[in-house]
Here is the input.
Amino acid sequence: METGGVEWRVSPGLVPYPDALAEMEERAAAVLEGRAPELVWLLEHPPLYTAGTSADPRELFNPDGFPVYEAGRGGRYTYHGPGQRVGYLILDLGARGRDVRAFVHALEGWLIDALGDLDIAARRAPGRIGIWVDRNGTEAKIGAIGVRVRRWITMHGFAVNVAPELSHFSGIVPCGIAEFPVTSMTEMGVSDGQLRFDLALKRRLHRFLASLGGSGAEG
Here is the structure.
């Protein structure tokens, strides 16, 4: 399905990480060469950890022996697994303002607004990566962001916790931040979170793309 010239894809089941990485690489090349439209791809992975370009091996414990993959994106270690909504964005920033910082800021805003539609008051936290909420008087992380931009084509994107097994995050220091816990939509009292979140993301997609600016803002 295309939305404003951008393909919107939701994959059922659990997508193996190597398959997703290969698909992203192939699609990014096709977008760069004008052979395929941009893509927003929503999916889930089986339990695994990914290592960003700044990953510190001392922050990987992995007592369950989950697979660990080199992601090629920015950041440190991240967990992916069932019950987590992962979004991969293959967008052409060459036509959308050529501003990586603005892209990340807009992506954060898109997720915050979509969570707001589910009555989850999410926000940015100065000096800290990710999407944050207040839970029982404590700040907690509900979403991670990790992107790669090559020749102005974006790859990777975000992971928002709908109803994952939160104990799996204890196998790493999530994104290098040990001082704060992670949480999920389920812990925040939201039911049917994945379907509702997907609908909110799609409803707000046009505004997100428009906020990037450039000649592709309306496309």
In short: The two ends are 14 Å apart (CA to CA). The first strand starts at residue 2 and ends at 3. The domain at 2-208 is CATH 3.30.930.10 (BirA Bifunctional Protein; domain 2). The chain has a mean pLDDT of 94.
